[in-house]
Design goal:
Elements: H1 7-10, H2 22-35, H3 48-55, H4 59-71, E1 75-78, E2 82-85, H5 90-93, H6 102-105, H7 114-126, H8 148-160, H9 164-167, H10 176-189, E3 199-202, H11 205-216, E4 222-227, H12 231-239, E5 243-250, E6 253-254, E7 268-271, H13 285-298, E8 301-305, E9 330-335, E10 347-350, H14 356-367, H15 372-383, H16 386-412, E11 418-419, E12 427-431, H17 438-447, E13 453-454, E14 467-471, H18 477-492
Parallel strand pairs: 4-5, 4-7, 7-8, 8-9
Antiparallel strand pairs: 1-2, 3-10, 5-6, 9-10, 11-12, 12-14, 13-14
Helix pairs in contact: 2-4, 3-4, 7-12, 8-15, 10-15, 11-12, 11-14, 16-18, 17-18
Length: 501
């Protein structure tokens, strides 16, 4: 006859005066005995009757504790065999065992598809910078000017009366009131020709680039891109297996007439016409009309990234390229990351009517739908006039911060970096003296605690005068002044003086 472990081995320590229910004390006592090894796997427990007598408990109390332990996998009960400690305990399933076979640990790396290899390659040299944000990192708005109180009040109000609609799976095209608010804003502020049905809410303009390529292009198709241009677009397009054809940019913007005759005809062209990234120039009307005519004649598509058009400091707002499009060849991208915060993760695409369904389908397959509650709060924020006030307030703030940067550069960087005011945007471009290696200058700046991206990092083709791209929107005037001093010391060192070879 197989015997059970002695009741005394359990050392349950039942406390009649404890507020904890007795069955819970029994459960925790037995579980502790199992986890500490006093009860080994496979050990048979006393009967519920014997344990009830020993602990002066009702038998139903012991049964309740046993049932809980069986349900959680600590005990196993079989008819005619009593109750035993499980051979495999739940805790052992929560911790992965380390690899002990050296041959397995040193085996070949997983085989990646061609696209996986391309993505890993771009990730290796575009990996986001860790640590705190330092001047003059680009792409950061004034997080210290985020409308926290208003946003918190609108968010609280939304959660206080949140609907099932907002908690359930949402429309992959986006929250309808937000789409209507975006369309109304774009018609008025950017002269975009659209209605709410053409607006698809995204998490980022980067997602817009991915969706457009999936809908319109096949791997191997040629895509024309600005050179220098936005590295995120270059990487996203190249990662999709597309052939990048660099197109030069001058004071009037992208120059498609300069593309070599032997270059492959572009199926799509990616442009930033309102504020070219990173040079900061605005595409002239002549170039805009030429680009639209080219797209109409060749059947190509234009992907217009209007990433920071809200911030223009000289002259009236410029109309979007999309508003001039008569043939329906332009997909328009916008983002709230530069207006509010990159953490909000809301952007949008305005698609030609015949492409909307395909764009929504691609967006659905990407991550089903955008965050619903954030969309609702943003719709309230725009509809109640807070958005327009926030734009006016931050536009004035950014103009002051840009002026502080330009003035500090004039005083401290003369002869080292030529920084001129920009008519729009959240960054300026500083030109280095001819022959100075901008990558070396950027490394020297980093050693002095300043992030100054080299213009070479934005180029596909090597060559050209060196420069540093300086973001200013996310930093106070004091931070800007201190960082210009650090940059001046960096550019005086040897690191920035090495000529290009």
């Amino acid at each position: 006859m197989k015997r059970s472990v002695p009741v005394s081995l359990l050392a349950l320590g039942i406390d009649p005066g404890s507020p904890v229910a007795r069955y819970r004390q029994l459960y925790e006592g037995i579980r502790d005995a199992i986890l500490t090894g006093r009860l080994r796997p496979g050990a048979r427990l006393p009967s519920t009757r014997a344990l009830a007598a020993e602990t002066r408990s009702a038998r139903n109390t012991v049964i309740a504790a046993f049932e809980q332990l069986v349900a959680e996998g600590y005990l196993e009960g079989r008819v005619g065999a009593g109750t035993r400690v499980a051979l495999t305990l739940p805790e052992s399933l929560l911790h992965a065992r380390p690899v002990t076979d050296p041959r397995r640990a040193a085996g070949p790396r997983p085989a990646l598809a061609e696209r996986g290899r391309r993505l890993l390659e771009t990730w290796g040299h575009r990996r986001p910078t860790g640590g705190p944000v330092r001047p003059f990192r680009t792409g950061y708005p004034a997080l210290d000017a985020f409308p926290t109180e208003v946003w918190a009040r609108l968010m609280t109000r939304r959660w206080a009366r949140v609907s099932r609609q907002l908690l359930a799976y949402g429309d992959p095209a986006g929250y309808q009131p937000l789409r209507e608010a975006i369309a109304a804003y774009l018609r008025e502020a950017r002269a975009v020709r659209c209605d709410a049905g053409q607006v698809v809410v995204l998490t980022s303009s980067q997602q817009g680039i991915e969706v457009a390529t999936r809908v319109l292009l096949e791997p191997g198709d040629p895509v024309w891109v600005e050179d220098p241009g936005y590295p995120g677009a270059h990487d996203g397009l190249a990662g999709a297996g597309l052939r990048l054809v660099p197109v030069p940019v001058d004071a009037e913007g992208i120059d498609i007439a300069a593309v070599a005759p032997e270059a492959p005809a572009g199926r799509l062209v990616y442009v930033t016409p309102s504020h070219q990234y990173p040079l900061g120039v605005t595409m002239s009307l002549r170039r805009r009309l030429a680009l639209l005519d080219w797209a109409d004649r060749t059947g190509a598509w234009i992907l217009e990234d209007d990433y920071d058009s809200e911030y223009r400091y000289a002259g009236p707002p410029l109309a979007a390229l999309q508003g001039l499009d008569q043939a329906g060849r332009v997909l328009y991208l916008g983002t709230f990351s530069k207006v509010f915060s990159p953490g909000l993760r809301l952007a949008y695409c305005v698609a030609p009517p015949e492409l909307v369904d395909a764009v929504v389908a691609a967006r659905f397959q990407s991550d089903r739908h955008p965050p619903a509650v954030n969309q609702a709060v943003l719709a309230d924020f725009i509809g109640e006039g807070h958005f327009a006030r926030h734009i006016r307030r931050t536009r004035a703030l950014y103009a002051e911060r840009q002026a502080a940067l330009v003035e500090a550069a004039r005083r401290l960087l003369a002869g080292k970096l030529e920084v001129s005011p920009a008519a729009a945007g959240l960054h300026v471009l500083g030109w280095l003296p001819p022959g100075v290696d901008d990558r070396a200058a950027s490394r020297a700046a980093a050693e002095h605690g300043v992030e100054a991206a080299p213009l070479a990092a934005f180029r596909i083709r090597a060559g050209g005068r060196g420069g540093l791209v300086l973001g200013y929107a996310g930093f106070t005037e004091r931070e800007i002044a201190d960082s210009v001093m650090c940059l001046a010391r960096a550019l005086e060192g040897r690191g920035a003086a090495r000529s290009k070879k």
